[in-house]
Amino acid sequence: MSTKKSNKQPVATAMSGGVDSLTTALLLKEQGVDIWGIHMIVGVPPEQERHPDSFSFELEKTRELLKKIEQSLEIEIKIVDLRDDFFKLIIKPFVNLYLQG
């Protein structure tokens, strides 16, 4: 694969930290695409969390991993906390429908 420079608009790619998203970012980067990553935090909001200390620890580990990926690929990764919206729009309606049978 060649490393070409592109004049196209930057491309955002979802970054979970797993093999698939890393491979995608690497392949795009090798093709000269100007990319940046986005990592979405979903789940329950902190006030709904049963074990907030455990989640905080996992979140910190995720931030450390993403920082290493940023440095390795020389890209910016933005972290977006979607927990409140995810809870209101996905989890709560699902639980309500489930309880209705």
Care to describe what's here?
It is a single chain. The protein contains three helices and three strands; from the N terminus they run βαβαβα. The protein is an alpha/beta fold and 101 residues long. The chain has a single domain (11-100), classed as Rossmann fold. Strands 1-2-3 form a three-stranded parallel beta sheet, covered by helices on one side. It is elongated and about 50 Å long. The chain starts with 10 loop residues before the first strand and ends with a helix. 5% of the residues are buried. The mean pLDDT is 85.
Which spans of ≥5 residues are poorly predicted at pLDDT below 50?
none
Helix content: 40-55%
Reading the helices and strands in chain order gives EHEHEH
Largest beta-sheet details:
3 strands, parallel
Spatial strand arrangement across the major sheet:
1-2-3
Name the CATH superfamily classification: HUPs
Q: Give the mean pLDDT.
A: 85
CATH class: Alpha Beta
Instruction: Count every beta strand, where a strand is a DSSP E run of 2 or more residues.
Output: 3
Coarse shape: elongated
CATH architecture annotation name: 3-Layer(aba) Sandwich
Report a brief summary of the structure.
The chain is built from 3 helices and 3 strands. With 101 residues, it is an alpha/beta fold.
Please render the helix and strand layout as text.
Elements: E1 11-14, H1 19-30, E2 35-41, H2 52-73, E3 77-81, H3 83-100
Parallel strand pairs: 1-2, 2-3
Jot down its keywords.
101 residues, alpha/beta, Rossmann fold, 3-stranded parallel sheet, 3 helices, 3 strands, 51% helix, 16% strand, elongated
